[in-house]
Structures are given as structure tokens and as C-alpha cells.
Amino acid sequence: MKKRTKQKAPYFIIGGILILILIVGGIYLYLDRHSSFHDKLESVASLVTEQVRYEADFTTEGYTLENANVVLDPYHISPLTALIMFETEESVAPTVTIEGKDKWTTYTHTFEEGTEHYLP
């Protein structure tokens, strides 16, 4: 009598793996085509792109100290801020003083000398 060899076992394992791959691939394709997740994604601009867009309004050209370009909340993240921009004919170093209740809470800052000024 001839003994039976176990050569059929590898075919069953390979066939099972192929069927499993086909099932997983089919589920993936079905979910990919019928998922509304892709429709819910929105495009968000990078911070650098947003900054460049906002800074297009930051100009000193044609503005003076008496008629300054004032942009409230210049980067749209801090509503209690402003940016004041103006030109001077002579090179000056502007000084800004924020008065507090006393000398300890009063803040003074002198900016760099120049003819174009951007004061936060």
C-alpha cells in the first residue's frame, strides 16, 4: 500500500490566504467608493499662506502719523490687537507709551529708527 502524502495542505493555505486578500480588498474598495468621509474633508490653508494673505494689507505707502493705516486684529487670532503703519519724511524712532495706574504698570517702548513704521 502506498502512503498518502500531505501535499494538499499547502494548496489549502495558499487558497485561504488568496480568498482572505480578495475579501479584504473588496471591503476596502466598497468602503472607499461608498464612504462620504472624503466629502466631509475641507481644505485648510497653511499658516504661512494665511500670513501672506493678511500682510497684503500691511502698507505704509501714503499714510502719515495723522492719517495712519490701522489694522485691527491683523492676523485674525487676537481681537484686542492692532497694527499701526505710517511713513515719515525724516528718519525717526517712534516711542509708544501705554499708561498704567502708576509708574510700575506704565509701559514705554522706543522702536527702531526709520521712515517706514509698523507699530503693534
Automatic annotation (TrEMBL):
<protein>
    <recommendedName>
        <fullName>Arylsulfotransferase N-terminal domain-containing protein</fullName>
    </recommendedName>
</protein>
<feature type="domain" description="Arylsulfotransferase N-terminal">
    <location>
        <begin position="70"/>
        <end position="115"/>
    </location>
</feature>
<keyword id="KW-0812">Transmembrane</keyword>
<keyword id="KW-0472">Membrane</keyword>
<keyword id="KW-1133">Transmembrane helix</keyword>
<feature type="transmembrane region" description="Helical">
    <location>
        <begin position="12"/>
        <end position="31"/>
    </location>
</feature>
<dbReference type="InterPro" id="IPR035391">
    <property type="entry name" value="Arylsulfotran_N"/>
</dbReference>
<dbReference type="InterPro" id="IPR038477">
    <property type="entry name" value="ASST_N_sf"/>
</dbReference>
<dbReference type="Pfam" id="PF17425">
    <property type="entry name" value="Arylsulfotran_N"/>
</dbReference>
